Amino acid sequence: MSRVKLLDKEFELSIPEEKLLKAVDQVAEQMNVELADKNPLMVCVLNGSFMFASDLMKRLNFPCEISFVKLSSYAGTGSTGQVKELIGLNENLEGRTVVLLEDIVDTGLTIINTVDQVKQMGPEDVKVATMLFKPDACKRDVKLDYVGMEIPNDFIVGYGLDYDGYGRNLKDIYTVVE
Ligand SMILES: O=P(O)(O)OC[C@H]1O[C@H](OP(=O)(O)OP(=O)(O)O)[C@H](O)[C@@H]1O
Ligand SMILES: Nc1nc2[nH]cnc2c(=O)[nH]1
């Protein structure tokens, strides 16, 4: 399938599954070396990260746990802009290494906010793993410990990412056709 239509937009194939899975292999290899003795808690930031988290977890060969969090759609406003509340992280994080699993870091706002909130729960260390990173969109100073691949600043769907709720089930990634 080289093109798909979702709602009112057309998308064309840009990253095939094979390439995505090679990137996941590389992230897993790096984690298998660096996190082997850390007993980390992997934290999947829903919704978009479910597919990356699933593929990644199958490739990890050290003891680890996984938990799932969501960011509330409620948005309070503060001096730093929108702050979304993290829901579902009920584990005791004190002394733990936490690895946040994101599907994409775009502007960087979501991950910065998420890292801040997790840090307030007293973990020993917080690391960030993202399947995709848009360097040209991210103007903030975000520390990314694991990056699957860097991509251009275009709107994409597939491999967990949606357009208005649709397209998350696509195994490849597609880029919007303007
Ligand atoms: O770097 P940013 O510009 O903040 O964008 C990245 C965020 O956008 C997407 O989440 P979204 O809010 O669309 O929720 P979803 O995962 O439920 O689709 C994605 O899953 C990241 O969490
Ligand atoms: N579906 C989708 N969600 C995003 N969230 C941040 N960037 C993107 C993107 O390119 N596509």
From TrEMBL:
Name any one GO molecular function: hypoxanthine phosphoribosyltransferase activity
User: What Enzyme Commission number(s) appear in the record?
Assistant: 2.4.2.8
Q: Which UniProt keywords apply?
A: Cytoplasm, Glycosyltransferase, Magnesium, Metal-binding, Nucleotide-binding, Purine salvage, Transferase
Question: Record's family?
Answer: Belongs to the purine/pyrimidine phosphoribosyltransferase family.
Name assigned to this protein: Hypoxanthine phosphoribosyltransferase
Q: In which pathway does it act?
A: Purine metabolism; IMP biosynthesis via salvage pathway; IMP from hypoxanthine: step 1/1
Q: Which residues form a coiled coil?
A: none
GO BP terms: GMP salvage; guanine salvage; hypoxanthine metabolic process; IMP salvage; purine ribonucleoside salvage
- What Pfam families does UniProt report for this protein, alphabetically? Pribosyltran
Origin organism lineage = Bacteria, Pseudomonadati, Bacteroidota, Bacteroidia, Marinilabiliales
Whichever gene encodes this chain, its name is hpt
Outline the extent of the Phosphoribosyltransferase domain.
19-163
- Cofactor(s) of this protein: Mg(2+)
| Annotated GO CC locations | cytosol
